[in-house]
């Protein structure tokens, strides 16, 4: 349990709760859930430019990272088909992957296929079920993909001013504006309470909020004087109590709760809002293909990690279909913007390609 680890090392409850957020980030779990300690380890085990446990912002927004990867691939001769929906993986008579078919009927032929879609989309939608072992299909179907995350993107006409550290007169960003700001995290009991509400089908009445202001470091993301605020919030169940839909009313009611919470820490925040974009778990699934809205393509619990990700005997990136590889967050070592799964999968695919 994460709670036991934190109690062993720290005395300050606000500090313990702040660290605990990275143990439950993206996970339908509480700091008291067995295995939650690993999720914290997963988020702090890496490094950035030699600094252990450090995270960073991508200049130009996260889309700039995708563009950088695309440019590097194109420079090596890759052909990129943007905004093209893949319908299914092409299979030869011997069951070998031979490319993909796009929604418009175009066939893109290749000797190998690497999928960074989720295991659910890759194996349950893009491959005929009779081509896969039954126990493998059952494992993919039964994977825990619950997600507690609702992402809210906000445009504001001024920098939030927090009671704990009011803004300077010139309105310039202060050091805390350039960091990850955690709200409603004064105690781990608050996180557990928020989690418990979601397990009963109700959005948290006092949600955990991770607030970032990337424009404080990267002014090009917003007009002069304005800012973009990224809110990573939980807990929101994928399915609401009584089967109620996540309609506009439910979305806005939850967002209003989040904004009321921020207002208590930073009076005037609500008045500064120009626009907001609310993405609940079903929205994240529909728009980005995340199963259950899970940002990691599946829970990061110990039974779904290492040799068991995405299924026992298939953690080495190869799949039951010869020539088809899994290279996204649903593969080992799991979620996070680190590229490890892709790099590892590419090495395995190259090894096989040389044999071909």
Automatic annotation (TrEMBL):
Record carries keyword ATP-binding: no
Domain Amine oxidase: 34-163
InterPro entries with a match to the protein in the record: Amino_oxidase (IPR002937), FAD/NAD-bd_sf (IPR036188)
Cellular localisation: Mitochondrion matrix
This protein's GO CC annotations: mitochondrial matrix
Keyword Magnesium: no
Superkingdom classification of source: Eukaryota
GO molecular function, a single term: oxidoreductase activity
Pfam families: Amino_oxidase
This protein's UniProt keywords: FAD, Flavoprotein
Subunit annotation: Interacts with COX5B; this interaction may contribute to localize PYROXD2 to the inner face of the inner mitochondrial membrane.
PANTHER family assigned to the protein according to its UniProt record, in alphabetical order: PHYTOENE DEHYDROGENASE, PYRIDINE NUCLEOTIDE-DISULFIDE OXIDOREDUCTASE DOMAIN-CONTAINING PROTEIN 2
Role description: Probable oxidoreductase that may play a role as regulator of mitochondrial function.
Record-stated family: Belongs to the carotenoid/retinoid oxidoreductase family.
Official protein name in the record: Pyridine nucleotide-disulfide oxidoreductase domain-containing protein 2
């Amino acid at each position: 349990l994460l709670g036991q680890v934190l109690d062993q090392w720290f005395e300050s409850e606000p500090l313990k709760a702040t660290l605990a957020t990275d143990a439950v980030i993206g996970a339908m779990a509480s700091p008291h859930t067995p295995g939650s300690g690993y999720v914290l380890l997963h988020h702090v085990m890496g490094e950035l430019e030699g600094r252990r446990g450090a995270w960073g912002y991508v200049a130009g927004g996260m889309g700039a990272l995708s563009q950088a990867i695309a440019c590097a691939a194109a420079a090596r001769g890759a052909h990129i088909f943007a905004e093209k929906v893949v319908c299914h993986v092409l299979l030869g008579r011997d069951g070998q992957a031979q490319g993909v078919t796009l929604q418009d009927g175009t066939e893109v032929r290749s000797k190998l296929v690497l999928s960074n879609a989720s295991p659910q989309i890759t194996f349950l939608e893009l491959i005929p079920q009779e081509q896969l072992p039954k126990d493998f299909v059952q494992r993919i179907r039964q994977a825990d993909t619950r997600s507690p995350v609702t992402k809210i993107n906000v445009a504001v006409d001024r920098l939030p001013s927090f009671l704990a550290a009011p803004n300077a007169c010139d309105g310039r960003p202060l050091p805390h504006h350039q960091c990850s700001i955690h709200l409603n995290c004064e105690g781990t009991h608050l996180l557990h309470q928020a989690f418990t509400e979601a397990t009963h089908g109700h959005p948290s009445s006092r949600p955990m909020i991770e607030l970032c202001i990337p424009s404080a470091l990267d002014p090009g993301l917003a007009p002069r004087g304005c800012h973009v605020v990224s809110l990573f919030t939980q807990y929101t169940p994928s399915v609401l109590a009584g089967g109620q839909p996540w309609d506009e009313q439910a979305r806005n009611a939850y967002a209003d709760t989040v904004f009321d919470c921020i207002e208590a820490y930073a009076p005037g925040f609500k008045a500064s809002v120009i626009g907001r974009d609310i993405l609940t778990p079903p929205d994240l699934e529909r728009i980005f293909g995340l199963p259950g809205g899970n940002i990691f393509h599946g829970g990061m619990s110990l039974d779904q990690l290492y040799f068991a990700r995405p299924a026992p005997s298939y953690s080495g990136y190869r799949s039951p279909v010869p020539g088809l590889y899994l290279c996204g967050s649903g593969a080992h070592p799991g979620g996070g913007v680190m590229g490890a799964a892709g790099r590892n999968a590419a090495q395995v695919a190259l090894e096989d390609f040389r044999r071909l």
